[in-house]
Amino acid sequence: MAHDAEVAVGAPVAARHAPEPGAVVLAGSAGGVRAVRDVLQFLPPQFPAPIVIALHRPARPTRDDLSLVLHRRTSLRVQTLGEPVSLEAGCVHVLPPRTTLVTDEHGSLRLEPTQDWRTADPTMTALARHYGPRCIAVVLSGRLDDGAVGARAVKRARGRVVVQDPADAEAAGMPASVLATGSVDLVVPLRRVAHTIVALTMAPGGADLLRVPRAPWAS
C-alpha cells in the first residue's frame, strides 16, 4: 500500500515539471486549407498552446472568411491575428493574407505585410526566435519550398519540426523541401498530424516513440 501511495503522489509532481507548451505553427499552400481543417478538428478543447496558421492566400478586396471556415471544424477559438500581436493558449490565430510574423529589435512579435509568396519561412523563424525550444512547426500540403528556411531556424532554436508525409499530401513540394533539409523530427500522414501535435504538447516524452531517425547525410 505504501508503494502505491508513493506512485500516486509522485505522478502529479512529474506532471508539474513538464515543459510549458510554446506555440504551434501550421504552414501550407495548395491543399493546405483542407489539411489544416483536418488537423484542427482532432485537437482537444483543452489544447494548451497557441496555434498560428500560415497559409499562402491571395489578398481579397472583401472580407476574408478563412477564420469562419476553420471555426466550423474545431472546438478551439479561432480569430484573425491583428496588432498588437498577442498569442493566447488554446486559440487558433489566422495570419491575414500576404502577411507574416516577424520579431522586432526587442524580440516581440509583430505583423508585417509581404508581396512575396513566402509566409511560412519568416513566421516559423519569428516563432523560433520568440519561443526557442518550445516552438513546434508543422508543414502541410503545399507547392514550392516555403518552410525549408524556417525549419532550419526552428531546429537551431531546438524546437520540433513535423511534416505531412509528402506521399500523403495533395501537393508534395513544401513537405518534401522541408524533409530534404534534414531538420525534420517526425514525418506522419495527415490523419496522424493532430495526434502528433498533442503528443508533443500534452504528453512530454510520448512523441519520442514516433521520432524519425536522422539520416547520416543530414548530420
Could you walk me through the main structural features you see in this protein, from its secondary elements to its overall organization?
- With 219 residues, this protein is of the alpha/beta class.
- It has one domain (19-203): 3-Layer(aba) Sandwich (Rossmann fold).
- It is 32% helix and 19% strand.
- The protein has helices at 2-16, 32-40, 66-71, 120-131, 148-156, 173-179, 190-202; strands at 23-28, 51-55, 77-80, 91-94, 99-103, 109-113, 135-139, 160-164, 186-188.
- The strands form two sheets. It has a seven-stranded parallel sheet with strand order 3-4-2-1-7-8-9, sandwiched between helices.
- β5 and β6 form a beta hairpin.
- It is globular, with a radius of gyration of 17 Å.
- Residues 1-18 have low confidence and may be disordered.
Key traits:
219 residues; disordered N terminus; 9 strands; two-stranded antiparallel ribbon; alpha/beta; Rossmann fold; 7 helices; 7-stranded parallel sheet; single chain
Topology:
Elements lengths: L1 H15 L6 E6 L3 H9 L10 E5 L10 H6 L5 E4 L10 E4 L4 E5 L5 E5 L6 H12 L3 E5 L8 H9 L3 E5 L8 H7 L6 E3 L1 H13 L17
Parallel strand pairs: 1-2, 1-7, 2-4, 3-4, 7-8, 8-9
Antiparallel strand pairs: 5-6
Concise summary:
With 219 residues, the chain is an alpha/beta fold. Helices cover 32% and strands 19% of the residues. It has a single domain, classed as 3-Layer(aba) Sandwich (Rossmann fold), CATH 3.40.50.180.
The percentage helix is 25-40%
SS elements, strand count: 9
Level-2 CATH architecture: 3-Layer(aba) Sandwich
CATH homologous superfamily classification? Methylesterase CheB, C-terminal domain
Radius of gyration: 17 Å
The largest beta-sheet arranges its strands as 3-4-2-1-7-8-9
Structural class of the helices, strands and pairings? alpha/beta
Total DSSP helices:
7
